Amino acid sequence: MIASILPTYSRAPLTFVSGEGSWLVEADGRRFLDLGAGIAVNALGHAHPALVEALSGQANALWHVSNLYNIPAQQQLADALVEKTFADTVFFTNSGTEACELAVKMARKYWFDKGAQDRTQIITFSGSFHGRSSAGIAAAGSEKMIKGFGPLLPGFTHLEFGDHDALQAAVSDKIAAIMVEPVQGEGGIRPLPDACLKGLRDLCDEHGILMILDEVQCGMGRTGKLFAHEWAGITPDIMMVAKGIGGGFPLGAVLATENAASGMTAGTHGSTYGGNPLACAVGAKVMEIVGDDAFLAEVNRKAGLLRQKLEGVVAAYPEVFEAVRGSGLMLGLKCKATNTDVVGAGFAEGVLTVPAADNVVRLLPALNITDEDIGLAAEKLDAVASRVKEANA
Fold first, then answer.
1. Claim to verify: residue 119 and residue 256 sit in the same structural domain
2. Which of 105, 143, 159, 192 has the fewest Cβ atoms within 10 angstroms?
């Protein structure tokens, strides 16, 4: 008999009832150090007082009116994003998946309006993850994502991650856009080198191709800059954002230049809930905190501290780990042992991590994790490695 919740998740045997900062409390009272942050969503940890206040204040005033009317918190957040980024305009969604759908539509409508109706192809890369909608799975193209869900949305050219020759060969007057994650998350914490990101920007400029960046997981301060592409000194034409922007409340966005968004006129896209007062009240407060230069400097300092401690754990357990990789507080432990065994051992040691492709364990802690909790994270991961080593002996 099928469960009342559609059984599409392989859930851990844990039920959390409360949280504070970087800690979660299980129904039986056990405390867990959360190094996953809801898959990079809880950018400021659990129950951050400023976010609770922002949500409560808005909830007591107004929940929903729809986008038939002006929404002050939405305007506030859009203005803040435009001020702090390359973007001239913002469309709010409920998720990264919805942001992907609009990014694809925006790129194709751009060329349609320019009279290039057959310029619809979008280049994507192996290991990518752009959500689980029809456009998202077609964009990723991996067998795991697409098997059984055909026919797929056409119009995507899939290239191997890092294959520069294939990229050059794929460029034609049919290419509307190149879509890439500056740091792959689900793909195993694989950063795109700054030189490669600059090279992609140059390639797009040379051929008039739009650059779409997916910063759903690596954006909003996760790498120590407000957005990861800033490290390479480039800007995209279109960018997908979600996860951390809502600090735990469902919120996403598409940011774009005026040129890239020129085809999106009244009636071409919409959302009933996207940019609702509750989400944007929280998002505006997240943006106020995370967008501060002093806060981002602290993210970088803490990232250096965490990475140093992780390198020590990896060196101590070469049977379990191969290397640390990633950027900022978006780090991965490349495993020699099975990554799901490492995650499972973490449950016994009271620490939460997230598995990814390429046998990697993701560490995506709250951006405001304390130094004390970073030290505890290293201790717990050391105990996890010891447990896995003993189990595999």
1. yes
2. 143
DSSP 8-state secondary structure symbol assigned to residue 385: H
Residues 307 and 361 in one domain: yes
Let me know whether 268 and 128 are in one domain.
yes
- Return the SS3 of 4: coil
Helix (H) or strand (E) holding 62: none
Q: Residue 166 belongs to what domain range?
A: 50-290
Condensed to tens digits (0 to 9), the pLDDT of residues 186-211 reads 999 999 999 999 999 999 999 999 99
343 occurs within a structural domain: yes
Query: Per the domain annotation, does 8 fall within a domain?
Result: no
Q: Residues for the chain: how many in total?
A: 393
Quick: pLDDT tens for 248-299: 999 999 999 999 999 999 999 999 999 999 999 999 999 999 999 999 999 9
3-class DSSP state of 25: strand
Q: Note the helical H segments in the chain.
A: 37-40, 49-59, 72-84, 96-113, 134-140, 143-146, 164-170, 194-207, 277-290, 293-316, 339-349, 371-392
> 310 and 330, same structural domain?
yes
Residue 380 near residue 350 (C-beta atoms within 8 A):
yes
CA-CA-CA-CA torsion for 39, 45, 49, 52, nearest 10 degrees?
10
Specify the pairing of strand 238-241 against strand 210-214.
Answer: parallel
pLDDT digit string (tens) for 216-227?
Answer: 999 999 999 999
**CA 9 to CA 24: how far, in whole Å?**
20
Quick one: 136 and 207 in the same domain? yes
Query: Do 319 and 148 touch, CB atoms closer than 8 A?
Result: no
Q: What is the CATH number of the domain that holds 297?
A: 3.90.1150.10
| pTM for the full predicted model | 0.96
Task: Report whether 221 contacts 290 (CB < 8 A).
Answer: yes
Torsion of CA 258, 264, 267, 271, to 10 degrees: -80
Q: What percent of the chain has pLDDT over 70?
A: 100
Contact 64, 310 (CB under 8 A): no
Final residue in a domain of this structure, among 290, 324, 342: 290
Residue 166 near residue 110 (C-beta atoms within 8 A): no
Query: How many domains would you assign to the chain?
Result: 2
SS3 145: helix
C-alpha distance across the termini of the chain, in Å: 40
